[in-house]
Each structure stands twice: as C-alpha cells, then as structure tokens.
Design brief:
Bact_Acetyltransf; acyltransferase activity, transferring groups other than amino-acyl groups; 2 domains; 30% strand; acyltransferase; alpha+beta; Aminopeptidase; GNAT_dom; 8 helices
Length: 292
C-alpha cells in the first residue's frame, strides 16, 4: 500500500530504514517531552535503536515509514500479536511536524489494522501532548483509562504479601496464565507470554496453590495481569529490574497506585489509554504495555 499526498508516501519499512527511524524516534520524543517539562522516554539514540530493532525483528509487528520526496521523515509500528492491534510508537521528525504527517501515518496504521478484522485497536497517549490527544480523538479513539508511568523498584524488595508466592514462570504455566489473562482482559496474550517465559523474564504469583497472576516482565514492552491488587503487589515486590522509563499503573486502581507510591515508586509521566472498537474494562489488576 502506498499513500501519496503532496509528495508524501507511506510504505512498508525495511531493515535499511530502522536506523534513520530510530534517530527520528529519539529526537521527536526527546523534543516533545522536554518542551512539556518531562524526561525523555528515549534518552539516547542507542535506546531508540534498541527498541526499534527489537520491534522490526519480531514478525508479529508491522513497520510503516513516511517519506517526503524520497527522505524518511517518520514511522509507526503495529503490534499484531493478539486479536487486539496495538499502535506505536509513532514518531515524526522535528523538522517535519505540524504538516499532517502524523495524521497520515496514523490513518495508514488504522487502515492496516482494519484489514485484519481485529476486535479493536489500542494505544497509549502521553496526556500532556494535547496535539496527539486531539488527533487520536478525531480519528475515532475513545479515552478509557488514566495511567501514570511510574519509575523505581519498591523500597522493600521481596516484601511478604500474605498467602502469595512468586516464582519464575515455566512453560507448564502457560495455560493457567492464559486463563488469568482471559479473565482479566477478555483475551489472552499467549505469544508475548510464551516468549517471556523462554527468556526467563516472566513471573507467576500463586494464591492457595494455584496461579492467580503473572508478569511478562516490567517495562514498556511487558504487561502483567492478576486477580487482585495483592497479587500484583507481590509480583512488583519480586521485580529485579524495570526496563526503560517505567511501568504503566492505572491510577483508578487506588489500592495498587497508592501501594506503589507508599513503596517509593514515583510518577514520571501521565498517560491516557485510548481505544477503537471492542473494549471491556479489565476485571482485575493489570499493568499494560505501551500498547495495552
């Protein structure tokens, strides 16, 4: 698919595009966050390269780039690992912003998502960025949940949460963990969880000798689901690291949000979870990825 408007074309990205898109990603996120007084989520070019190369190498992601007169000026990724499509990151070079490029990239991404007949489309939007909030709303996204990116590990590592036991996940846990995810989200995230188990990043929490929650890791590319906030607190207490800027905590989950604050974690950036299509509020405690 190619879209053309006043010299703009949008096409599938290739390996040759990843480095230039990483530079744009780093510059764009650093600029907009700095303008609003927030730390960059992509503080170095190497951080940008690391993330975009990870996404490009995953066959379950689509990669679209925007070109103007043959010069790459932006990109967007689509996460196609479940029946829900996640969009992001999306970035446009600082010298090409405010010309409708981001809108065209998002329209192209939405077209791709709809071609898959997905149940829904979701993304995370930095709440301070009123331009992107307005754009996504105009394109049909609805606001669902306020989020806070929180940084830092709990000050009491491996704190004792009554009647909860945390351990490293193993392949035999996959079916039970998927059942928890379906209970909380309405669908499972089996591809993500299976990969996290293989990397030995995933944890499960048991309550009364059964799995009551899991985390695929902690960071923008990871997620966690649990039956209650107590299980999530137990998982967080056993996290040995948070990758990148932080984790997304739903601020309307008062029990979990306040526990994080009371245990030394700090709010870094406000976010908003936005969706198109099917959306059922999660039935339990959850920490979403940068997509959902």
């Amino acid at each position: 698919m190619t879209l053309v408007a006043e010299g703009l074309s949008i096409r599938r990205g290739s390996a040759h595009d990843v480095d230039i898109c990483s530079s744009i990603f780093h510059q764009a996120f650093s600029m907009v966050n700095s303008q609003h007084g927030f730390p960059s989520e992509v503080p170095t070019l190497e951080d940008g390269k690391h993330l975009l190369h990870l996404l490009f190498l995953d066959q379950n992601f689509q990669f679209l780039v925007a070109e103007m007169d043959g010069r790459v000026i932006g990109s967007v990724f689509l996460d196609e690992r479940t029946e829900i499509i996640g969009i992001g990151p999306i970035s446009v070079g600082p010298d090409a912003q405010f010309g409708g490029i981001g809108r065209m990239l998002m329209i192209a991404a939405l077209d791709k998502a709809r071609q898959r007949s997905s149940m829904g489309i979701r993304l995370m939007q930095a709440s301070f960025n009123v331009q992107s909030l307005s754009l996504y709303a105009k394109l049909g996204f609805a606001v669902q949940e306020p989020m806070a990116v929180m940084a830092g590990l709990p000050i009491e590592p491996r704190a004792i949460i009554p009647d909860r036991r945390v351990r490293v996940a193993v392949p035999a846990d996959l079916a039970a963990a998927n059942n928890i995810c379906r209970k909380v989200y309405g669908f499972d995230r089996s591809i993500e969880l299976k990969a996290a188990i293989e990397r030995k990043d995933a944890l499960v929490v048991e309550h009364k000798d059964r799995i009551a929650g899991y985390a695929s890791g902690f960071g923008y590319l990871a997620h966690a689901v649990c039956e209650s906030a107590l299980e999530m607190q137990a998982l967080l207490s056993h996290a040995d690291r948070i990758d990148g800027t932080g984790i997304f905590i739903p601020t309307r989950n008062r029990e979990l949000f306040h526990w994080c604050l009371e245990n030394g974690m700090r709010v870094i950036i406000p976010y908003t979870h936005m969706t198109i299509g099917s959306y059922i509020p999660p039935n339990g405690a959850y920490i979403p990825s940068v997509h959902f």
